Amino acid sequence: MALTSIPAPALIVRQQFARQVGVTNQILSPYIYGPLAHVVRYDEPSEQALGKLGVYDPVGTLISGQLQTAYPWPGKPVGSTLDKDFVKVFVKQAFLRYHEDTSGTATQTGLNTVRSPNYIYATNDYGTTNIGTQGVTVGDSALITGLDASSNPFSLATRVIGVSGSDPADLIPASVSAPVASSQNIAASTQSATITPGTIVGLATLASADASLYSGLTVRRPTETYTITCLTGGVDGVATVQITSASGTDDVASVTIPVGGVLALGARGATATFDFSGGAMAVGDSWTVTVTQDYT
């Protein structure tokens, strides 16, 4: 018997490579992406005509219970959305009526002069006018209508050239009483400085006090009392003291007495002079100084 060798099944993959054309970079042009606004600006002369609504209609028609005039939006692109928060309305050559008196009580008191018993047309800086917030101003337009001496109706369109309160009926006599001093005023005082020794253990003395430069009016203290207490004993340049004011507004927690013995009492100008010729100051030594400034 003859035998034949049969090879086992196998998967053979053959790849074919082809040369590709080199890729080149393509330059893309930039562009702006976003909403497109159709802007009509009043301060641009070339755009004013594009936003013109037309002639103002003072009568209007009844819309939603009020007399109004509906104008079409000028030049509005189809499908566009209005930015109502941006929209503003400007009026050229407009007259805004801020006052009207139909009572018939106004009278002519002189040439080109009209007086009203019911209104204060203008006032000084105190602002007592009862016409708006600033009253009548020179240059404002005015329409005066009425009846003349023959009861014929007339109408006068003019401008205000001045406002005057010189009519005797408008003048209020001044009444000024004699001045009266307020009970809150600071009483007159005479300059003085007094020293009252307290507890003294050491040999230093408080020789003098000076109120000539003292000034306490700004804090309503024409008179102040200072208590000086020794914290660290010694002579001038060494000894330290505490200064306490009776008002509690001019205290010094700790200060060294300068060489020479002249000590500033607080910050209002009063001074005290110590004498160390007899010896040093001791802890606990105290003095009270009362100063008063000259004031009338």
Name its key features.
296 residues, mainly beta, 5-stranded antiparallel β-sheet, 1% helix, 25% strand
Q: How many H/I helical runs?
A: 1
Report how far the terminal alpha carbons are from each other: 156 Å
How do the helices and strands follow one another from N- to C-terminus? HEEEEEEEEEEEEEE
Order of the strands making up the biggest sheet? 7-14-9-10-11
Count of distinct strands: 14
Alpha-beta content class: mainly beta
> What's the gyration radius in Å?
48 Å
Low-confidence stretches: none
Helix content bin: under 10%
Q: Approximately how much beta-strand content do the residues carry?
A: 25-35%
Q: What's the overall geometry? A: flat
Mean pLDDT: 87
Number of domains: 3
What does the largest sheet look like?
5 strands, antiparallel
Give structural notes.
The protein is mainly β. It folds into three domains: 38-94, no CATH class; 107-166, no CATH class; 192-292, no CATH class. Helix content is 1%, strand content 25%. Strand 5 (141-147) and strand 6 (153-159) form a beta hairpin. The N and C termini lie far apart (156 Å).
List the SSEs and their pairings.
Blueprint: H1 45-48, E1 61-63, E2 66-68, E3 107-110, E4 113-115, E5 141-147, E6 153-159, E7 192-197, E8 205-210, E9 223-232, E10 240-245, E11 252-256, E12 262-264, E13 271-275, E14 286-292
Antiparallel strand pairs: 1-2, 3-4, 5-6, 7-14, 8-13, 9-10, 9-14, 10-11, 12-13
